[in-house]
Amino acid sequence: MTAPRLEIDLDAITSNARALVDRLAGRGIRVTAVTKAALADPAVAAALLRGGASGLGDSRVENLARLRAAGLDAPLTLIRSPMLSQAEEVVRTADISLNTEPRILDALSTAAREQGRRHGVILMVELGDLREGVAAEEVVELALTVSKRDGLWLAGLGTNLACQNGVVPDQTKMAELSRLVEQLEAAAGERLSVVSGGNSANLDWVFSSADVGRIDELRLGESILLGTEPLRRRPIDGLRTDAFTLVAEVIEAGLKPAQPWGERGQAAFGRPVARRGTGLIRQAILAIGRQDTDPDGLTPPPGVEILGMSSDHLVVDLGDQDAAAGDELRFGVDYSALVRAMTSPYVARSLSSPDL
Ligand SMILES: *Cc1c(COP(=O)(O)O)cnc(C)c1O
Question: pLDDT of 99-109, one tens digit each?
Fold first, then answer.
């Protein structure tokens, strides 16, 4: 089989989506499944929808176009603020986008009018993580101007925490979002359709909160795809963490000294990690590199240790394992390793149920 490759277990993805959708439904929260870490692969998206996701979100309009072209029947949300230069594609492709800039709303409105469409807008509120968001003091005023623009309707408010500075979505932050929603609804005289509370980092809060307030939607990627929560990268109870496996092929294996010899400077990617031990080790080289994945995000098979990775080579200490050129080793991936592997043109994908 082709190597390196990502093996994708679609049933694991469906089962994770179903588990989270069901648990969140109990709290009145829908799931927009985020496809960006899977490069919006239509088979993965279909698995997410089979698991009960009520819509799909992606940060790239090109990815949403891929989902559209695959004919998936679900509302599509662009979860990164649109580029001004892509306003037309955004309106053509996405039903809703997350926004913060009046200038971009103007461009979306022009595009919507020209295309004879209505485009939904969720305004993002800054609650302290300092990535996207309108200041809390200004968001109601801006929100009231959205539907004054031809072709746009105000779908709701949202926020995003944790991604940039690790700020935790807690009861105080979420109560603040609910308070803004109520203030806006009082001023607008109508109810918002979406209150998008955040991403996978919100799950701890949801399941421990006595009152989720007005939050009625989360945008979930990592938790469904990898079964982990991003604040501490712990596995989530009852979810599968093996939906994605990165398989690489051994191109050299044998006994090598534990320690390099000769005068030493920098390695290809800066200072090499010190090798431990003395004598000989069973070393293997695999044909996969930093162009394909993130070495810090790989979980090697039990007993195998990663010694280093350059652009095209992964070097491991096989420990007691035996491996020869041509053999394959299987690695677990974290979010960073997954994103890199999905976007590498050198990594093939193999789906567990390709006919779906
Ligand atoms: C990536 C992203 C998400 C999904 O985050 P996960 O941690 O993968 O659940 C949600 N919202 C926004 C705005 C994002 O950029």
Answer: 999 999 999 99
- Domain formed by 244-352, architecture: Beta Barrel (2.40)
Active-site residue numbers? 36
Predicted confidence (pLDDT) per residue in 86-133, tens digit: 999 999 999 999 999 999 999 999 999 999 999 999 999 999 999 999
- Classify residue 291 by its DSSP letter: T
Rg of the chain (C-alpha set): 23
Distance CA 341, CA 289 (A): 10
Whether the Cβ atoms of residue 131 and residue 156 lie closer than 8 Å to each other: no
Distance from residue 221's CA to the centre of ligand 1 (Å)? 6
On whether the CB atoms of residues 8 and 354 are closer than 8 A, the answer is: no
d(CA 149, CA 212) in angstroms, rounded, equals 31
End-to-end CA distance of the chain: 20
Domain locations in the chain as residue ranges = 10-233, 244-352
The helix, strand and coil proportions of the chain, stated in percent and rounded to the nearest 5, come to 35, 25, 40
How many other C-beta atoms can be found within 10 angstroms of the C-beta atom of residue 124?
Answer: 20
CATH number of 10-233: 3.20.20.10
Probe target for ligand 1 pocket from 31, 58, 59, with the most ligand atoms within 8 Å of CB: 59
